[in-house]
Amino acid sequence: MKTLIILAGGASSRMKKSQASAGLSAAEVAAANASAKCLIVLQGDERPVLDYIIKNAQAAYYSEIILITSPQNDSFKSWYGDNTWNKERLGVTIKFAIQYIPEGREKPYGTADALQQAMDQYPELKEKEFVVCNSDNLYSADALNQLQTTDAKNAFIAYDRSGLDFPEEKIARFALCRLNKENELIDIIEKPKLEELENYRDKTDTLRVSMNIFKFNGADLYWWLVDCPENPERKEKELPTAIWLMIRNMRNATMLGIPLKEHVPDLTTKEDIAIFRSQLK
């Protein structure tokens, strides 16, 4: 299991709409307004922040990266289109999958739709195991390695909220989870309301947070992506919804939660750029 799929097809609308923050260079602000979040080049660097995720993946023994991007992906290809360079300098092969926007929509149709389109473009994914993660969170090599080496067919990193250096309102932008005594997922909610947070504490008083990093068995997951309903508020097909359908409706399908307590640097708004840079140091 050597394949990591990185979700990079989002519109980065919150980043573009947010106000410029103190401590940012003019180049960082310009990149935040114009490009995908993961292609921002931090002050003092020569390469995009996406390199950090790729290098951690290589350190965790992944050899193949599939980037899911929008159809307008020339900027991605300018950085990652040369696989000779990728192999020599990053230690991985990089492929591209395109998330096309359905007719009548202006924005991508969500993370479940993105993964389904990638699996349609690379049909071998429907019969193999792989890991999926966001492009704007810096996951550690340890987290990536734990998903690489687990015997569970389907799994995710269940982060301890106390290890995540985020305010409560930011935690509510992620997904909260409930695990049973075997650490198997029994419930997941995407972008909960602030008043719902305390309802998800487990018996050890731990709040478990999903930061959208999962291991999947393609044969288990694929048709739940196809049948995933759109969220009635956000009008998107979301990966946690497909996961919930899979574990509730598929016989013997389980999703192991791997407990981990550490921070995950995140890029959502311009304010996060300087924080992300300082955390890297």
Topology:
Layout: E1 3-7, H1 13-17, H2 26-34, H3 50-59, E2 64-69, H4 74-80, H5 83-90, E3 93-98, H6 111-121, E4 129-134, H7 141-149, E5 155-160, H8 168-171, E6 175-179, E7 185-190, E8 208-217, H9 218-226, H10 239-249, E9 256-260, H11 271-280
Parallel strand pairs: 1-2, 1-4, 2-3, 5-9
Antiparallel strand pairs: 4-8, 5-8, 6-7, 6-8
Primary descriptors:
alpha/beta, 281 residues
| Helix residue percentage | 25-40%
Termini separation comes to: 31 Å
Shape: globular
Q: Outline the biggest β-sheet.
A: 9 strands, mixed
Q: What is the β-strand count?
A: 9
Proportion of residues in β-strands: 15-25%
Arithmetic mean of pLDDT: 92
Secondary-structure element order, N to C: EHHHEHHEHEHEHEEEHHEH
Instruction: Identify low-pLDDT runs.
Output: none
Radius of gyration, in Å, reads 18 Å
Number of helices: 11
Structural class: alpha/beta
Summarize the structure.
This protein is of the alpha/beta class and 281 residues long.
Structure description:
- This protein has helices at 13-17, 26-34, 50-59, 74-80, 83-90, 111-121, 141-149, 168-171, 218-226, 239-249, 271-280; strands spanning 3-7, 64-69, 93-98, 129-134, 155-160, 175-179, 185-190, 208-217, 256-260.
- It is an alpha/beta fold.
- Strands 1, 2, 3, 4, 5, 6, 7, 8 and 9 form a nine-stranded mixed β-sheet that branches.
- α6 packs across α9 (218-226).
- The mean pLDDT is 92.
